Amino acid sequence: MNINQQPKLPQKPFPIVIIGAGGIVKDAHLPAYTMARFRVLGVYDKIRSKAEALKNEFDIVDRVYDTLEELIAEGHQYNAVYDLALPASLHAEILEQLPDGASVLIQKPMGNTLAEAKQILEICQRKKLISAVNFQLRYAPYIITAREMINKGLLGDIYDMELMVCVYTPWHLWDFLFQLPRVEILYHSIHYLDLIRSFLGSPKKIYASTVKHPKMKTLASTRSTMILDYDECTQARVITNHGHDFGLQHQRSYFKIEGTKGAIKIRIGLSMDYPRGLPAKFEYKLLEDKAETWKEIDIKGGWFPEAFVGTMAGLQRHTLDKSVPLPHHTSDVYETMKLVEAAYQSSEKGGIIIQ
Question: For FRET with 122, which of 10, 149, 246, 254 sits at 20 to 30 Å CA-CA?
């Protein structure tokens, strides 16, 4: 089956300036920009040695900036795209300092709360920023493949989606999470909620529960179950357990889509044996094919770093030509943040008490 797996690249890409030099930039942003041959004018981080290490490792990085003001000024001079790879609590402060009308890619989540998300959206609208949020799972090669099959009508009407994650996640790799009141949905399952929305839109209602793990009590929550209801026949589910510390044999990480004419099941290998991960796997079954066995499409790449090409490429293409859609625009992602807030409210207030 001849199905595209890659995002479209801008014909004349803008240079990029990156604010922040953490692990996500090293593991995903810069490898992705290297693959796409995007030029990075430079990187700034308050810990200069971290930015210097990235410059030494990646040839596409031209320089390290001494100050944030210097990065912003040179970015404006070269009409660069600002790449904010920062904690969510810092987004609003930095966005206020960017030139009006600039293009900016904001690291997810879009703030730590819905109030922060609203503030970010209002800043972007007031300053007329061309702004998008880095929900890159939308652009993983296997998701591009699935979306193209759906758009071609191969699966018929979609009525069921399921994201299942039963893995062991080394949360200690992200120290900042241990000080936050919200963890699993806001920093992990938010990707899945956003992905489902990208296919089905926002649901009519959500049921959710998110809880701690007895061996991870210093974290707010690491296990979640969410049900998204759309109509009498359409539903999506997100089920995550990040504490399955019993080896790989029974770990699971998949995205399943069912339609009236066919189904897709994708192994999201990155989550298994993290950070090494397993290869992605894409299987599908069309009802018109009478064979009982599912077929497989060879997938080139996965979530890290390949999907990070798509978020930046999409923003740049939209900046060059406003008629090109920008699916991960801040106004759309604000709806994802509303869904996240609804999930937490459901977890706090839902459920029937058994007397």
Answer: 10
**Close Cβ partners of 313 (under 8 Å, ≥ 6 residues apart):** 7, 8, 9, 10, 36
- Look at the pTM and tell me if it is higher than 0.90: yes
CA distances from 27 to 49, 85, 270 (A): 17, 12, 12
Residue type, 202: S
CA distances in angstroms from 93 to 84, 96, 120, 329, listed in the order given: 11, 6, 9, 19
For residues 222 and 185, give the distance between their C-alpha atoms in angstroms, rounded to a whole number: 8
Nearest CA to 304 among 90, 11, 8, 32?
A: 32
Contact between 224 and 210 under an 8 Å Cβ cutoff? The reply is yes
- How, if at all, do strands 281-286 and 205-211 pair? unpaired
Rounded to whole angstroms, the Cα distance separating 169 from 245 reads 9
Sequence-distant (6+) residues with CB within 8 A of 104 are 81, 82, 83, 84, 95, 98, 124, 129, 130, 131, 132
In the chain, where the domains are located = 16-137+314-322, 141-297
The confidence band for 1, taking pLDDT boundaries of 50, 70 and 90, is: confident
Domain 16-137+314-322 maps to which CATH number in 3.40.50.2000, 3.30.230.10, 3.40.50.720, 3.60.15.10? 3.40.50.720
**Token pair of 110 as six digits:** 């879009």
Spatial separation of the C-alpha atoms in residues 33 and 53, rounded to whole Å: 17
Average pLDDT, the chain: 96
DSSP 3-state of 279: coil
> Do 209 and 185 form a contact (C-beta atoms < 8 A)?
no
CATH homologous superfamily, domain 141-297? Dihydrodipicolinate Reductase; domain 2 (3.30.360.10)
CB distance 66 to 89 below 8 Å: no
pLDDT digits (tens, 9 = 90+) for 225-255: 999 999 999 999 999 999 999 999 999 999 9
